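User: what does the whole thing look like in 3D?
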Amino acid sequence: MATLKDVAKASGLTVGTVSRVLNNRGYISDKTREKVYQVMKELNYQPNETARALSKQKSNTIGVILPNIEHPYFAKVLSRLEREAAKQGYRIMLFVSRYKEEREEQCIEMCKSERVTGVVLCSGSFETEKFEDLDFPLITLERSMDEGTSGIECDNYQGGVLATELLIEKGCRKLMFIGGVSAGVDIHMPGDLREVAFRDICKNRNEENVVMVTDNRLFDSLEYYEYVRQALVDNPDVDGVFASSDVIGAYVLQACADLGIKVPEQLKIVGFDDVNIAQFTSPGLTTIHQPVEQMAELAVAAIAQIDEGKVVPTKTVFPVTLVERGTT
Amino acid sequence: MATLKDVAKASGLTVGTVSRVLNNRGYISDKTREKVYQVMKELNYQPNETARALSKQKSNTIGVILPNIEHPYFAKVLSRLEREAAKQGYRIMLFVSRYKEEREEQCIEMCKSERVTGVVLCSGSFETEKFEDLDFPLITLERSMDEGTSGIECDNYQGGVLATELLIEKGCRKLMFIGGVSAGVDIHMPGDLREVAFRDICKNRNEENVVMVTDNRLFDSLEYYEYVRQALVDNPDVDGVFASSDVIGAYVLQACADLGIKVPEQLKIVGFDDVNIAQFTSPGLTTIHQPVEQMAELAVAAIAQIDEGKVVPTKTVFPVTLVERGTT
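Assistant: Here's the predicted 3D structure for the full assembly of 656 residues, as structure tokens:
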């Protein structure tokens, strides 16, 4: 494998000059630059990113920790983070926590030993002490509010208001909320505000006209179809469902097909997130759009800014919008 | 930041002894080991993976290059690769090529400069010259057959046979194939064999009973609903569709809902891949199951084996199975 020395020797220049070309530092004539590039190509020289990382104690790498890649929401988040990171010259090192606290801590440890420039930590619901004393910025996305350097979230409360008001406006009389975590006792995550908003909008309604279905296993709901189906069987007079994610919304739609409930005629559904699955269902799922692209862009930008010594907001909340499709 | 020297000093041991504990090399008493771990914890010492990578010229990192994270097939592949890599002590560095040849070449260049242990390159359809003279193993997944160190694929031909024969067995008289790339001229990718098998099984049928719909844009079909819908409008007597992916199958199902075609009564559908989207549709999509988990496991194992100087197969083909759901 060719080294910097080999390139210097073959181009008749000093190692220092070649290094200046590589790092784009100081004055270098176009002729010299071209000469070096040509020799690098001839010798198939690869600048060693590992050595560079060591010398500057950083790796130009962003660690991304998320609970599950196959969930369409996280796939979308990861996709947008990668795109933005590539634009800004960062690599993505990927860690999947599988909703396990222990594994999440391991991921953070690995990020430390990899000397990452920063970490983007996506939702999950663990406690925060382990994330203190980090020597890199920790950007949280839709995650517990108090941890990390900078938290980025969408306006979950407003989304809950829009979804619930739409169902009422469309004439639904008995409303059901189906969600991943119960916000009955504490608010652990920004997403819990979807449920809080639903409760607030419904608080002047008779109790018998509101059904709450919450289960924290539903947060990763790829396997909870049966749970959703039973909720519909148990509450045959429900005519409007606010599902706290599009994945749950898709299950509601599927359960309706199985049970012979016509959507939107007999029952209306609003999801949350606006991921591709909302377009794959028949009819398409009305949902609350999270601006994931902008959220991911800001997450990467925040890491770059902190790396340059700049200050970033502690918390940023993005607006959501209602996207009406066939289920309402 | 604490160094190895600091740990040695604080624990009253030599740097060599601390290094042996860290690398789990040679005899170390339990007492010494515990002492070192305790001091490391007190000093918040992090072994520097970057320095380790430099000393051994490898980074314990596997580069994964895929065209699109949001496509459910690639999300599943990435998820399984990450799981297997974590088990074997590798990190995943993620690169997305966005179906662009130039970007794919950049990804390979970045993998070179990161000194990865190996690369897993997922499907795509570019030419191969750029992948010669790599100094790391290149494992291809469902990708052109001749490139890379080791190719892993599923038995696409057998899958095509199973899908087509099922439609015929269920009484379909006019069959349609909807696929991402045309294998009419050349076979570029293993997945093209799905179409070849369909043609072979149909070759004794009257031509007017077979419709081929192929478009290479459909390969990344998240946006081609309208294209699929038009194919159904143009061919109202088709009663059996073999879609070359579950994503395309989901679009066929959605188009049927829009056009008032009853599935499976009037039209039957078989997809390919068996990704989660096949379970989200109503009715669930009959499909050909690719053993992605085993394919990903083998990809990571192959990189580990080559790293240890072992020889791995040039090509490995995994069997597929038919999964019957509601669309047939």
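In plain terms: Chain A has three domains: 4-47, 57-154+291-318, 156-289. Chain A has a mean pLDDT of 85.
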